[in-house]
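Cont'd.
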Amino acid sequence: MAGVTLDTVRKIYAGNVEAVKGVSLGIEDGSFCVLVGPSGCGKSTLLRMIAGLETISGGEVKIGDRVVNQVEPADRDIAMVFQNYALYPHMSVYDNMAYGLKNRGTPKDEIEKRVNEAARILAIETFLARKPRQLSGGQRQRVAMGRAIVRKPQVFLFDEPLSNLDAKLRVQMRVEIKRLQRALGVTSIYVTHDQVEAMTLSDKLVVMSGGQIEQVGTPSEVYRRPETRFVATFIGSPPMNILPGQVEGPGRVSVGGQSIAVTDMREGLIPGSAIEVGLRPEDVQAGGVGTSSLTMDVDFVEELGATQLFHGKVAGAEFIVQASTGQLPADTRKLTLAVDPGNVHLFDPQTTKRLGRV
Amino acid sequence: MVENRPFAQFMAYLTLALGVVIVAFPVYLAVMASTFDTATIINGNMPLVPGNQADENYTRTLLYGGMHARQPVGGMMLNSMIMALGIAIGKILISILSAFAVVYFKFPFRKTAFWIIFITLMLPVEVRIYPTYKIVADLGLLDTYTGLVMPLIASATGTLLFRQFFMTIPDELLEASKIDGAGAFRFFKDTLLPLSMTTIAALFVIQFIYGWNQYLWPLLITTKSSMQTIVIGIKMMITTTDALTEWNVAMTTAVLAMLPPVLVVIFMQRLFVKGLVETEK
């Protein structure tokens, strides 16, 4: 087993399009790292460079202590699970899983042992003789994972493996992938655009945008202390509200004339300068009374069952508040929002970087 | 759609039956004619039920040939068979490999190579017949099987068919193969070839019939009667001189000429349908 190290990895496509702009990242041995970002952010390209399916335009990719820039995919000791599974349609499930081992000249009885073991772990023993087309989406997904497991690779690579499944199956497979990774302890890199998958699966969450890393951290670090406005609005659902505000003084900002206390605020900000104030919909108390509060004009309410989403405006900017159902009447037109100073995120309007304590 | 209109159904069957009769009657006539002697056919009152000369006609035609073309039709059929199989198999081999190269390998002038292959579509044998003849003659390939087969192999239809098919195979399959440690040749053998079986069957049927029915090219380059193909043989049977045409022999030859393509279609059609049902990428 081995970790993966990326050192200023770049990908430049023909026509000078830079898809990955110098990414450096260390992934510890045995950890589950999720690359998340909107489409076109370079996360898949990065994964494919680690797999060896794309050439590396600059920088270095290391698996363990070995630089693999010039190593063939088959010799990198990795296994990959593709979005559309990429199972060989003409081969049985057994042959699909055994193919990679056969090509490596693994002895027959060893192949059989490993395939049967993987089939047992994934509960697909009864399908071994079937062809992929006779399987459901979830079963195909299992076979694709089985194909990865039998190789006993140093690194698992997942390229949006769940996006072809329906919502219910996705949740189920998500749990299984996590359990499997824990049990096998193999370093895994997982690409997704789904932030729920990203939050639930990862030990290490890497948020990417525009070919660059925005933030690296544990899921709760990224959620609690987003380093940029992009991360703040990308992780979390519904997204974080961003309000225009002004610096009042140490530990205080004002939004639309209403003063708010802030715990995590950089020192030495000039009073009167513009600042962006981020508040998560679930972090503000609708109808509550706190040390600082905002008023909100409600446009409409979305019912989600357990919770309600109040859409409206605060200080002229779009704002969403989440409240438990029944807590407030649905025809509420004006809301007072209590804001906990510890839940206020501040960002620089120019650089979009967090203005928290250093 | 649920429909229960007996009259409409009857009309549909009637129309189809009429069509079948129109197509099938001449064939039936040929089969019947191959069971009579020359005199019965010539006098213009050929019965529509089988005669008693079938054994003699077929034995004579296969082993000895007619009066005018004294060449056993059995030999002609062998020539035709060699030519048709040579064209079908040769074309499949060449086109699957060239399509593999054009789709899966990046080499300089790949596009150019593809377009050159593509352009040959506009140049069937009939158009390039003189230069092709000249080359084949200069190479000393007149009256040889190579000369019969080779010029007809070179055309783009197969390459295009395989190229179109290969384009529909998802890239991930190639990538998965790469990660599974399969090189280009292994990917071709283990993945591409099994998936192409239906396309190969389709191309085989088309090319076999195309090869079997060739008339102009064998007519040009074969001079020895031992190299004649059956399609030319039929023409030889029907004389335009004042001699009597042996219609029974001509018809027997025609029936024999029909058999292999019909068998190929019947046999391969099963594979076709099986493939169509089973194919999923």
